[in-house]
Amino acid sequence: MGNYSGFIILIVLFAIMYFLVIRPQKKQQQKHAETLKQLQKGDHVTTIGRLHGIVDDINEEEKTVTLDCDGIYLVFDLNAIAKVTDRVADAKSDDSAKEDKEEK
């Protein structure tokens, strides 16, 4: 049993590392990939350099996105998008919800 104790400790440490580091990182990467798939023209985004802009064009073939930053158009890699701060679809659904409330 003494020969296997070191091996068991190694397996336990790997399992702890998996659940504390690797698994949450995978979930975060999947969530980011899903966010990029749902990216649409007109969405307000923030890049990894903390530049704020509005999506003007998405090129799926080259995996680039063109951002409108107060009239200046910049082309970024899709992976440079850190987060979407305001979605076009959400804004439209909020407007329609307000219209429904006003009609009642």
Walk me through the structure.
InterPro entries: Preprotein_translocase_YajC (IPR003849). It holds the Pfam family YajC. It is a single-pass membrane protein. A hairpin with a 4-residue loop joins strand 2 (about 50-60) and strand 3 (about 65-70). The chain starts with a helix and ends with a helix. It is built from two helices and five strands; from the N terminus they run αβββββα. The mean pLDDT is about 85. About 50% of the residues lie in helices and about 30% in strands. It is of the alpha+beta class and about 100 residues long. The protein has a five-stranded antiparallel β-sheet, covered by helices on one side.
What is the terminal-to-terminal distance? 75 Å
Mean pLDDT: 87
Question: What is the rounded Rg?
Answer: 22 Å
> What is the overall number of helices?
2
The amount of beta strand, in percent, is: 25-35%
- What class do helices, strands and sheet pairing give? alpha+beta
Helix content: 40-55%
Which blocks of ≥5 consecutive residues have pLDDT under 50? none
Please list the strands of the largest sheet in the order they lie side by side: 4-3-2-1-5
